[in-house]
Amino acid sequence: MQPYACHQCGRTYKWRSSLNSHIHNECGKEPRFQCPYCPHRCKVKSNLNKHIRNFHRDICMMGSSLPI
């Protein structure tokens, strides 16, 4: 059971800190971070970095100066 629920969207979390992060960074917010390689957008920068590593690894390995 995950005891911490967002009162706005109902998403649940095991840890209070995860709920607080969700409320502060995600819930009801528009995505702020745009992928430089495709139309994908994220609300959290670390998720964008994961997206780039997973979907654009070949571009990044060609010498791009963007951090992963």
Automatic annotation (TrEMBL):
Q: Which positions fall inside the C2H2-type domain?
A: 4-31
- Write down the Pfam families for this protein, in alphabetical order: zf-C2H2
Q: Which InterPro entries does the entry mention? A: Znf_C2H2_sf (IPR036236), Znf_C2H2_type (IPR013087)
Q: Does the keyword Cytoplasm apply?
A: no
Is Zinc among this UniProt entry's keywords?
Answer: yes
Domain of life per record: Eukaryota
Keywords, A to Z, come to: Metal-binding, Zinc, Zinc-finger
Q: GO molecular function terms here?
A: zinc ion binding
- What Gene3D superfamilies does the record tag this protein with? Classic Zinc Finger
**Name assigned to this protein:** C2H2-type domain-containing protein
Whose protein is this, by species? Diploptera punctata (Pacific beetle cockroach)
Q: What lineage does the source organism belong to?
A: Eukaryota, Metazoa, Ecdysozoa, Arthropoda, Hexapoda
